[in-house]
Structures are given as C-alpha cells and as structure tokens.
Design brief:
about 90 residues, mainly alpha
C-alpha cells in the first residue's frame, strides 16, 4: 500500500520534459524550415513568368521590384481620371 501512495504523490523534481519532447520540437523545426523553403520556391515559379510577361510588354522598369503595385495594372486608379464614362 505504501508503494502505491508513493506513486500517486506529486513530486515536482520528478517531472521533466524528457528526450521525446525535445525530438518532437526538433522535428517540428525541421518540418517548418522545409515547408518555408518549398513555399519560397513555389512563389518564385509563380512570379517569374508574370514578371517576364510584363517586361516583354514594356510596362515594368528594370528597377521595379513589385509589378503588382505598378500603376499601369490598376485601371480604377483615381489619378488617371474617371473610367466610368461620366
């Protein structure tokens, strides 16, 4: 009976994260890094053809880093005037 009581008592010195938790955290870190790297390569594949298309059309300057923010791509831009046919 005394052995059962000793097992049931809480001792904060006996509670440790252990090696299993350490390796789970390491595996999550590695998986996050690999997913991040894969996402970057997929995004580069998407951006490259779009940039080449805009460069061929002459709408992007060589120094323009974000063609999506180019004023030529926004027909509803207020600085160009109204396109509603008032």
């Amino acid at each position: 009976m005394i052995a059962l009581v000793n097992l049931a008592t809480y001792n904060p010195d006996d509670i440790k994260p252990g090696w299993i938790a350490f390796w789970i955290v390491v595996a999550l870190g590695v998986a996050t890094f690999l997913l991040w790297r894969s996402m970057n390569s997929q995004l580069r594949k998407i951006k490259a053809p779009y940039r080449d298309e805009l460069n061929a059309a002459g709408t992007v300057d060589a120094g323009d880093t974000d063609p999506a923010q180019s004023p030529a791509d926004h027909p509803n831009d207020e600085s160009k005037g109204s396109t509603s046919g008032d």
